[in-house]
Amino acid sequence: MHLLTPLAAALSLPLSEAFRRSGHETLDELQPQEMSAKRVAIIGAGAGGSSAAYYLSQNATKAGIHADITVFERSSHIGGRSTTVNAWSDPNAPIELGASIFVEVNHILVSAAKTFNLSTSSDDRPKPDGAPELGIWNGEEFVLVTSAEDGWWDKAKLLWRYGLAPIRTNSLMRSTVGKFLKMYEEPAFPFKSLSDVAEQVGLTNITGVTGEQFLKANSIGDQFANDVIQASTRVNYAQNLPLIHGLETMVCMAASGAMSVDRGNWQIFSQMLKASATTHLNTTVAKISKQADKTYALTTSSGDTSIFDIVILAAPLQFSKLVIDPAPKHVPDQIPYVKLHVTLFASPHKLDPTAFKLDPGNLVPQFVLTTLLPNENYGSDPNGVGSTGFFSISIVGAGLNPRSTPKNRPEYIYKIFSPKRIDSVFLSKILGEHVPEEGESANGPISWIYHKLWHSYPYEYPRVTFDEIKLDEGLFYTSGIESFISTMETSALMGKNVARLVVDEWIESAAKQKIEVSEAGEGLKLQPEVGWEFKGLKDQEIQKPLKAKL
């Protein structure tokens, strides 16, 4: 409850609720007093920063507040880890380097794609004719192979092998996702504390244990957990079940309705910023200095300084090399992040079946996920890739090689996730062709190759408390949610949440400042959200008719 005035106290209502009951149907019926523009800096143009800018602009406009939003991004592109690279440097062949898909329960991303009229498609990536869709490889054998065309008999065989584990896992996933989705709505949203809201919706008992512990507690058999669920945690987060917490484990299984934006998911975030903010790319913020008047001076690496009322840090502080002076009341934890090597390459060759101990002439699945051998147990050791040496290999596209002679040789485009940089020896093995050390050559077995090392996501160790959202007065942080769930959607949710918290603070502050109760009987004004304006009436004269009305 907002204890702002004797009036609000007498009504025992939040200001927004008291406004709704005062007889006014909409804010448009009122004439809110003009408020000075609010200057907001957002550091980071990824999912969190873009979402914060977009929803802050929308919420401020609804409240009659002008927000001047500036986004600073040190890289040359919008989208953060959601970005594309062009195969063969051809702009007509963009390939997702980072976050490749989102799913139907990702309400913010799905809604934004529709709002911005972005074309989306389900997974229609090319595959060798007749090849299975997915295989799970443990270094010795494929423990599971599935095809998109699998019918009831194939599904029955899956149940025969794993019992009720697939059904129980699906039910457990739906229950967990249902709890998480409560964070999008009142009374949980907006949340001032991620730790508190996780407790409120019933998720801390899931984040506080490992995936292995959570699955066992819910009667999910070890074989299905190790063969299937662990393959999913490895491809999504490069982590085994005894390391990753239970909530992130369930997130990996919520893959229904997978989709992507044509030519790159980063377009969602680009459109968000286009609609809400001024964005400066290739601009690094080096220092944030809190001023005596509680504003913040932001200084870039080039020496330019600007003043802002609010700063939203939308990138992991530990990687920003950012100096905050004085140090904020709450400093985010430094936590270990996965160092994930992503390798994209183009080749006319299919994966060699003998590299996967298949008979010559067999086709390797389009998606090769990996798990551990039965005798491999790394516990919570983050260096637990196992004998496979990689987390996944998949065909993510196809195209015509413009560099080949003759021109336009048809080729597949592959993506590998691994804990170490992929070299020519490994590529030679999986293709069954000699790949020279220099890697690519126009007419060689690999015509184009691209390497990227990401700090892709945290190691999702079990925990029940999370970083503060508000680091200090006027200073907010979005990346604390990555230890809870690390996805484009959850970063966007935190951006939306911070945007709402900021505007709610502005409304509350404005209401306090606009209250004028003078001993001479000047009256009382509450602006802008409450929107009431009483003149020439004393406090008790206002309370009486409103009490009667309620």
UniProtKB/TrEMBL annotation:
Protein name per Swiss-Prot or TrEMBL: Prenylcysteine oxidase-like protein 1
Organism lineage string: Eukaryota, Fungi, Dikarya, Ascomycota, Pezizomycotina
